[in-house]
Amino acid sequence: MDTLTNWHERLISKTTRATLVTTYKYWLWLGFLIVVTGNGVFQYWKQWQDGLYVTDMRDRISWGLYITAFVFFIGISHAGTLISAILRASKASWRAPVTRIAEFITAIALLVGASFVVIDMGRPERILNVYLFGRWQSPIMWDVMAITTYLTASIIYLSAPMIPDLALYRDRLVDKVGAVRNIIYRTLALDWKGSPKQYKLLGRAITIMMLIIIPIAVSVHTVVSWIFAMTLRVGWDTSIFGVLFVAGAIFSGVATLIVIMAILRRIYHWEEYLTEKHFLYLGYLLAAFGAFMIYVNINEYLTEGFNLEEAGAFAFRQLFLEDFAIMFWFYIIGGLLGPVVLMLVPRTRTIAGVVAAAILVDLAMFLERYFIVVTGLRVPLMPYEPASYGPTFLEWSIFAAGFAIFALLITVAIKIFPMLAIWEMTEEHEAAIAGEPAEEALMTAAEVAGSGASTERSPSPSRPAEEGAS
Amino acid sequence: MTNRHILFGARFATSVLVAATILMVAAPVLAAGVDIAVGAPDEVSVGQNVEVKAVLSEDGIPVEGAEVGLTYQASLAGESARVEIATGTTDETGTAVMIYEQRADDNGEMQVVYLGPDTDPVQPFVFTIAVESAGPQLYLIEPGVTIPFINGTLVILVISTVWILIALAAVYLVRVGLAGRRDEASAAEDGSMWISALLATVAVITAIGMVIVFVRSPVSNTHIKDPHLYDRTPIAYVGVGFSYEGFGLDDESAGQTGDPIEDGGVLYFKYGCAACHGLSGQGAVVGSPLVDEIGSFGSFSEDTREGPKGMPGYHEVTISDQNLEKIYDYLKAGG
Fold first, then answer.
1. Percentage of residues in chain A with pLDDT exceeding 90?
2. Which range of residues forms the domain containing residue B208?
């Protein structure tokens, strides 16, 4: 028990250290992000003044970098869903240290992704009309619906399992942080005392959200793909798009999670918790999805290419041989084949190898979204010359600001929220020491993690948090 | 060889030359003598595939390999133009078969015109095909397939279920907070369950709101009580492949003839009113009917300038008061 307490205290101090200790590097990084964001805001102000004319989007290619960013961010938001919900539902024992980061990526990426839709609008002040006069024939309306639902669900799903940890912060950090953070902890911790009844209720809330968020997430990215697939455009109107987008979303989500995990591990010295095992398991997941993506791509392009229709020839040439060939082959070879190879070769089956694979995947998936959006619109529907599109500086600035805001929100969140799921990790660790399934060993963990001050013991030996699930 | 033979040879050569010269000079004249005969049904209905046969002959001899086109006179908003709807090439019997889909409810004067290969003018064959009346639309596409239960009701059920579950999770969080309050007798800390109560309320309100948005969405989209309206929307339809010249609505002089009603009709198209409110203001999927429900000019002008509901507002810079009055006159006169 003594070792457990030591381990637990060390975990708390390592986690709170990220919140409490702020070096000059943090401020430098924050400053950099604010500058990039500021430039984006300024450029957006110009776009607001002059209209979408300032972009390179025109009548024929009317979607570009913004919609690419939208699809990309909604894609990486699937990190939380997969890692957290699917692994929680399947009771994978290694998930606890990565769940919180994954859930944060989900909520923040969704916020950023959804705002790119508004950025892409010529008249953003009319956004409310979508709700007031929405027409259900339009797949764009389906998207509004799905993303609203997903965002609400993800925020609840992020906050519910964080309650015991926030209570811990509320009790432990009361004198160490300022008034604002104290208010945040007190508010979000919901009078958490760590009683069995609270664990039971919390367990039910988490179970409901865990089960419901999986179909919601799948539907969200399917609906995003339908924005393209429901049109009569060569290259877009294919039923495989739903599968391609969902698989691609999880693929890029896992990759983003790996990259952010690696950065946080390095900065806050979380080597003890984010071990090589976590990276390798996520790397295998990445490779598995890479292989699946290769299959989906062969399936799609072989079918479409074999019964090549008139306009299909143009779509194929621009993708495989001409304007977009470099992007396309980088995506296939670097982004899909690359991670599989990196995970297959024993020499690269390391943390560095996994991170390299993840970076490749993120790059490739961004390019994939870009060429899907642009090549689809580029295929002429009538005998006119194919249009061209290249994002302007303004578009790149706003795009960069999107990434900066994503990083900024995570950077700020580190200073407020516990980035490691302390109580769930303690549970897991305790189960590992005891050599018995986690279900049996909850109470000690719940008591230790739940409220630092409480000394009251509950007689119940069962695991209240899991009751809702069983 | 005798002189007679030489003389015969010379005469023969001369006559061949003369004949060749005559043929060369007369060829265009002969080509101009191409005669077009047409076989076509007297009456067709909208949506029907119509076969028109053209037989080309020249002095009774069938003309092979000639290009012919089928055109009809289209008119819209007081402007008119000839629209080519089919082309064909004659076979060895001089016959070209052209098939077109009847989309307009009035063909006007139809013509089979000679397109080539000769460049000389050929008298087009003029004829008419009557069209059975088919209501105000140009062309109605097939309605969608109605599958029982797979419609708005199912979507509402799915959405409600998802949101009820989200709200349920939020309610559990409220209870987490409540349990914390009851357990702690000292209760020195600030209560904080309001945040989860707020979350639950927001979830419930959003759930109800989503369903309301769905239910009150325009009648033609997903009318829960009448699934027929859920079918694909009938639309006016102009097919691809028409060599279509358009009516020059962008022309500055369009709508400046002086007749306010006629001009109003042209302007009604020029500013895109017809896109939502129907070809003659009878109302359509998006826009409300204008012809029967039009009120005073004042209210009409106000609505146009401000753009009620989802309609964009048209500022004076776009549509001048003068032009707006013409459009009003056009609609007042019955569209």
1. 46
2. 152-230
* B121 shares its domain with B159: no
CA angle A96, A101, A105 (to 5 degrees): 140
Give percent of chain B above pLDDT 70: 67
Q: Is B50 helix (H, G, I), strand (E, B) or coil?
A: strand
Residue B97: phi, psi to the nearest 5? -105, 125
> CATH no. for residue B88?
2.60.40.10
- For chain A, what is the total number of helices (H) and then of strands (E)? 21, 0
Residues A151-161, mean pLDDT to the nearest whole number: 89
**CATH code given to domain A2-22+56-391+415-467:** 1.20.1630.10
From chain A, pick out residues whose CB is under 8 angstroms from the CB of B196.
Answer: 190
The answer to whether the CB atoms of A156 and B159 lie below 8 A apart is no
CA distance A373 to A22: 41
Q: Residue B185 pLDDT > 90, yes or no? A: no
Determine the residue among A190, A216, A382 to mutate to test chain B binding: the one whose Cβ has the most chain B Cβ atoms within 10 Å.
A190
Measured from the Cβ of residue B104, the count of other Cβ atoms closer than 10 Å reads 19
Domain ranges of chain A: 2-22+56-391+415-467
Q: What is the pTM of this model?
A: 0.68
| Digit-coded pLDDT (tens) for A347-406 | 999 999 999 999 999 999 999 999 999 999 998 877 778 888 999 999 999 999 999 999
User: What mean pLDDT do residues B102-130 have?
Assistant: 81
Which chain B residues touch A if contact means CB-CB below 8 Å? 152, 155, 159, 162-163, 165-166, 168-170, 172-173, 175-181, 183-184, 189-196, 199, 202-203, 206, 209-210, 213-214, 217-218, 221-222, 233, 240, 309-310
Beta-bridged to residue B73, according to DSSP, are B82
Both B221 and B264 in one domain: the answer is no
One domain, residues B38 and B72: yes
Please tell me the predicted confidence (pLDDT) of residue A264: 92
Could you tell me the pLDDT band of residue B250, with boundaries at 50, 70 and 90?
low
327-386 in A: which are within 8 Å (CB) of B?
Answer: 382
In a domain? residue B3: no
Asked if residues A405 and A83 have their Cβ atoms less than 8 Å apart, the reply is no
Whichever domain contains B270, its CATH number is 1.10.760.10
Number of domains in chain B: 3
Q: Judge if B178 and B209 occupy the same domain.
A: yes
Please state, in angstroms and rounded to a whole number, the distance separating the CA atoms of residues A106 and A398: 21
ipTM for this model: 0.77
For residue A118, give the nearest of A59, A70, A75 by alpha carbon: A70
Any domain includes B246:
no
